[in-house]
Amino acid sequence: MKLTPNQIQQLYKFTRQHYVEYYDVQTELVDHLANDIEQIWIEQPNLSFEQVRDIAFKKFGVFGFMDVVEERTKVLSKKYWKLVWYIFKQFFNIPHILISITIFLVLFTSFKIFPAKWLFVSIGISSMFVIGIRLYFLNKEKKKRFKESNKKWMFEEYVFNLGGSIGFINLFLQVTNLSPLAISNTVIIIASITLTSLFLLIYIITFILPSKIEEILIKQYPEYKLV
Q1: 87 near 204, Cβ under 8 Å?
Q2: Cα(207)–Cα(149) distance, integer angstroms
């Protein structure tokens, strides 16, 4: 027995009731449930839709769909950082390398002119301010997109939340506050390289990836165009 369109929609509702908010994960679970339900109906055709649905759901174990959501999160996290790394490498190829060199030289010169500690503090405060403002607008954009489509996509959420990297960036900037007022030339070079990489990373996750969200979702989800 094949599921009707109405029963498919009931499965979507069922996944939402079990705290699965992302449409892509819902679709994956609905496909899985539908296949199990149809197989159970072949063996036990007298059971109702609700009965076979509950039997199929029990196969997910005591944590229900949460294990699937967690596994999906891990997979998308790896894809996200692979994408970040791909874009990051472009800044060390011609002509993008000029941008990286310019940032490095500006930082190196600044360390020569200003006390290291205050430079680190200034960079930290400025970076977090920029990220905070950007997150504010990204959150508005996320709400707007949800209002228009009434659907959430896990990878979209990951991109708009900057890959969950804010904690790491904040920790790094907090550690720099412990730096002394003056540092050696070797440390200046290392700090300039590290901060150049950090600036590029921040730029990629806060500006480049969110601006490519449509392109990313179309590549990530074949069904995105159909929704």
Answers
A1: yes
A2: 23
183-217 pLDDT, tens per residue? Answer: 778 888 988 898 898 889 889 999 999 999 888 88
For residue 152, give the 3-state DSSP assignment: strand
Residues 116 and 31 reside in one and the same domain:
no
| 176 and 206 both lie in a single domain | yes
Apex 211 CA angle, 208 and 212, nearest 5: 90
pTM: 0.81
Cβ atoms of 56 and 44 within 8 Å: the answer is no
Indicate the Cα dihedral angle 15, 20, 21, 24, nearest 10°.
-80
Cis check: omega of the bond before 95, within 30 degrees of 0: yes
- Residue 22 β-bridge partners: 152
Distance CA 82, CA 87 (A): 9
Same domain, 37 and 134: no
Q: How many CB atoms lie within 10 A of CB 27?
A: 17
**pLDDT at 62 (0 to 100):** 63
Sign (positive or negative) of CA dihedral 189, 193, 195, 199:
positive
Determine phi and psi for 180, rounding to 5 degrees: -75, 170
